Amino acid sequence: MNTYEKMIFEELKNWEIEMTKRPSLWNKATKSIQTKINEKIPQKVHDVITASMKHMIKATLVGSEYTTKRTTQLEAELRERDEKLKERLAFYKKTAAVEGAGTGAGGILLGLADFPLLLGIKMKFLFEAASIYGLDVKDYKERIFILHVFRLAFSDPHKRKEAFEKVVFWKETIHEFPEHPGAIENMNWQELQQDYRDHIDLIKMLQMVPGLGAIVGAYANYHFLEDLGEVAQNCFRWRVLMEQNRES
Questions:
Q1: pLDDT score, position 196
Q2: End-to-end CA distance of the chain, in Å?
Q3: pLDDT digits over 89-132, tens only?
Q4: Of 101, 140, 190, 214, which has fewest CB within 10 angstroms of its CB?
Q5: CA 235 to chain CA mean position, Å
Q6: In angstroms, rounded to a whole number, what is the distance separating the alpha carbons of residues 118 and 18?
Q7: SS in 3 state form for the chain?
Q8: How far apart are CA 183 and CA 144, in angstroms?
Q9: Rounded to an integer, what distance in angstroms lies between the CA atom of residue 3 and that of residue 227?
Q10: Which pLDDT does position 111 carry in this prediction?
Q11: Is 107 left (phi over 0), alpha (psi -120 to 50) or beta?
Q12: Distance between CA atoms of residues 81 and 76, nearest Å
């Protein structure tokens, strides 16, 4: 490892501690509140999120909707990849903020439209981020990895350690899945979409409040992409460094 990679490795060890620590009392309290919130949200909203999640997962595994070219050469240094990701993340955060402000200003109907639109922005970012760190996003197995990165970013604090281990022990995790995408229905997308809903429900409900929608929508979407960017970068950094270590 060079000096920069050693610095990043230390950062990743601190990140591992953060990802694997036990849920706090606050996490446990908010989980109870979130359950009550879910019960009060109109079924139409739940249906939109569920349908959007299922479509996104299918498109991720078997579609060409998010396919992108590798934007960084395979032999590029980690620092170069990190700089490229920072540049692209800034673009996606602005895009998400504009989209959130626009749909937030339009009331409930446009607010509902924000769910699939924001999902699309997040997945396009993840595919581009994966390509920056050298993953072949046309590979079915790498697409499953991308879904696991997404799951970790929006995981329930009580499930975060498990989600984290699925990512860092990827060579073992991938054996749990079939060799081809034909068995897509075997994937447990229900848990993934429920965790995602729990993560975004409260703030996105505020987005539908008249007078607050545009401000909340822009702020929420910007920070959702910021959080996703941090998790994605660390996951892909981990892959790069671990694979380099195995080859050396």
A1: 74
A2: 10
A3: 999 999 988 877 766 555 544 556 667 788 888 999 999 999 99
A4: 190
A5: 11
A6: 26
A7: CCHHHHHHHHHHHHHHHHHHCCCCHHHHHHHHHHHHHHHHCCHHHHHHHHHHHHHHHHHHHHCCCCCCCCCCCCCCCHHHHHHHHHHHHHHHHHHHHHHHHHHHCCHHHHHHHHHHHHHHHHHHHHHHHHHHCCCCCCCHHHHHHHHHHHHHHCCCCCCHHHHHHHHHCHHHHHHHCCCCHHHHHHCCHHHHHHHHHHHHHHHHHHCCCCCCHHHHHHHHHHHHHHHHHHHHHHHHHHHHHHHHHHHC
A8: 12
A9: 26
A10: 54
A11: left
A12: 7
Indicate the residue type of 131.
S
Residue ranges for the chain with pLDDT beneath 70: 24-41, 45, 68-75, 102-114, 180-190, 197-217, 246-248
Tokens of 230: 């941090």
